[in-house]
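User: Please predict the structure of the protein below. I'd like the answer in structure-token form so I can feed it into my own downstream comparison script.

Assistant: Understood. Taking the following sequence of 323 residues as input:
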Amino acid sequence: MSAADFRDANFLADTVMYNLICDHVALFKGAVFAGSTGFGDARFGGLAQFDGTGFHTITFWGAQFYEDASFRGATLDGLSDFSNAVFHQRADFRGTHFSGSQPLMQDAFAESLQFDSWTQIAASLTQIERYSGGSDTVSFAQATDLVEVAKTLAMVEGQGLADEAHAAYYAGRQHRRHAAIRAMTLSPGTWWEPVKATLVWITSGYGVRPQYTLFLGFAIILFCTVCFYPPDAISMDAEHGGYRARSGIKPPGKRLRDAFSCSVTTFTTVGYGDWYPRDVPVKLGSLQLSFIRYRTIAMLEGVTGWILITVFVISLGKTWIGN
């Protein structure tokens, strides 16, 4: 088919246009598809215009759009499946209304993607991540740029859309992290990027999930609490507790809450009170680890705590306060 002109047409029943090949323009502006519609594996060689089109259930699975594709003002009441569709030029979804389930999108946007709602960007990127299965054909280059613009507009102009922009940014970073993990080989040169991305994800959720920092910090405090619980791990300061600890002697009244208190004090680097870690080797039952000491664990916890507190303050400023 060289060209297709179905402007303002009404399709009252199910419409099947699988493997449609349209070498030139395909005009469906203002058309209404009342039933299920399928454009699976269709090939649009020219402009594909679906402006103002009403869809009930639509499938563009595997479709190829070699020129601009426009869905401005379209209404998609049911399932919208764009899985494995490829937009080689511009894909314009400005004003598109998804009133049914969220669009299933696993698309390669070779040129650019346009939305008028950052909420739609967030939803689409989340669906791309959810349904792509880690496909390497997905490109977030243009979409990520739009997300950065969205974050700036939301913060500066007070549009209240920062949460949506952060959700889109988080989804894009997660996809790139998964792709980097799959690309890992035995060569050490391929390890740094996925390790760095995973570290940033765990510690702060890429800077937009400050609660991740809180969870990680609390887990570290609990771990060090267990480390400080053995009898000879921490000692009571004679000036505060009235007891001068001796090697191998457990001070009276030392309980789990004392180890927890010492761990919290170490993590927050506020300075020791009545309990402090001892400079003796760590013991695991009858096994003594001469290469690591309780004071070493305290130093590592203190440095980690200082870093995580800084990360938390920065992440909080970017998200909650920014909103």
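That's the full token string. The mean pLDDT is 75.
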